[in-house]
Amino acid sequence: MRAYRAKLMVIAFISLIAFNQTQAQNLPCTNSVTLFNETFGTGAIGSSPDVTPVLTYSPAGSLFDEGIYRLADNIQQKIEWHSSADHTGDANGRMLVVNGAPGIFYSHTINNPVGFAAGSYYFRYYAMNANVPYACFGNPLLANLNLIAEYQDANGNWIPFTNSPYAGGLIPTSDNPVWLEYGSTFILPTTGNFQVTNIRVSLNSLQVGGCGNDFAVDDIGAYYCPEGGPMPVNFLSINALVKGNGVSVQWSTAFEVNNKYYEIQRSSDGNGWSVIAVLNSRGNTNTTQNYSVYDAKPLQGVNLYRIKQVDFGGSSTFSTTAKVKFVITKTDAVVRANPFVNDIDVDFVSISNQNVTARLYDITGKLVLSENWMLSKGSLSRKMITHGLGNGMYILSITGENNAPILRTKLVKN
To answer: C-alpha 297: how far from its chain's center?
Structure first.
């Protein structure tokens, strides 16, 4: 009976708010239900009841002073700001344009008398840095916003959702106006016999005053996700291509939300996987992003590659797998860095187990260093220690058994 009543409550909850569902753009999760979507409307310049006293409404003139705002159809409320329409795309559509001050500047309470179901909710907003890159003598303060999701408990206290607040981070400048999506999945916990009827979304500015900290916000949304929150990354493709003595691993994403970094993993059989590189995400974005990593030591034969994304909460998902065959036809070598500073790192692909000799000559042809290295079949690296050598040009010669040439190249020591 309890499960039946809970099911009825969820159905009633969805029915009560389903009329808002068509308002949301790019619904963030499967069968999502829109609880709230603030577009700030259309028409003449105005104010908002959800903007807190941290900001002061300015009905006219340049938004020159700190801590003032207005709703406008163009972000260019100062001459050095971008000229851009709102994110929603309505004719004469408005956005919240802010010359920032620290503190919670926006807060909206969503009420549902039927009650909100425990589970996954997605909160987001779109933001743009108002400043062109050369504003503030090329060094404008970057807006830094947090999104706070809360629910009201039985005693009237506001309690953070699990995962709240969400740190959106610094909003970068750009040569052209760019809207960026920021958001995350939050969990409304079970609250026993008490039914949550009020939830609140707030935006908090962490940046101090000064030249910059100017931004626009639009399309603040809250969504119920009955089947769980959205995937933090939408992988479009992954490819692996032999390039020189290694393999270039390339992948692209359609959007990234709350993603922290990528692990590039390799396997020979699809069972045991090793991490060959770690690459940071480029932040929240809803535009295509392309990444690549070079594997200088691929396995002889079949190489399988996959990408593991890890979000800020520690959750992870995997891309599909790319397959490439790497065949060593001759022993080859490449110097990893030229010019070099301290030591010479050499990456090998060796057709067999063998001894090689590395000789370093100065520009006059005088032998200054010589080392013998034992190579095993496959990919590996060796290091020539060059402590005490002066700066200048050198010649590195590497020969194999029977003095067979492997590499001869000019190097510069800085």
So the answer is: 27
- Does 241 share its domain with 362? no
- Total number of domains constituting the chain: 3
Of 179, 196, 225, the residue that ends a domain is: 225
The secondary structure of the chain in percent helix, strand, coil, rounded to multiples of 5, reads 5, 50, 40
Peptide bond into 28 cis (omega under 30): no
Helices (H), 81-213: 135-138
The SS3 assignment for 138 reads helix
DSSP letters, 295-306, are ESSPPSEEEEEE
CB proximity list for 374: less than 8 A, separation 6 or greater: 353, 354, 355
For the chain, which ranges sit under pLDDT 70?
Answer: 1-28, 229-231, 286
Alpha-helical runs (H) found in 307-393 = none
Are 202 and 54 found together in one domain? yes
Please give the structure tokens belonging to residue 244.
């020189």
Measured CA angle at 117 (ends 116, 123), to 5 deg: 70
Place of tokens 């979000």: 311
Residue-wise pLDDT for 141-170, tens only, equals 999 999 999 999 999 999 999 889 988 888
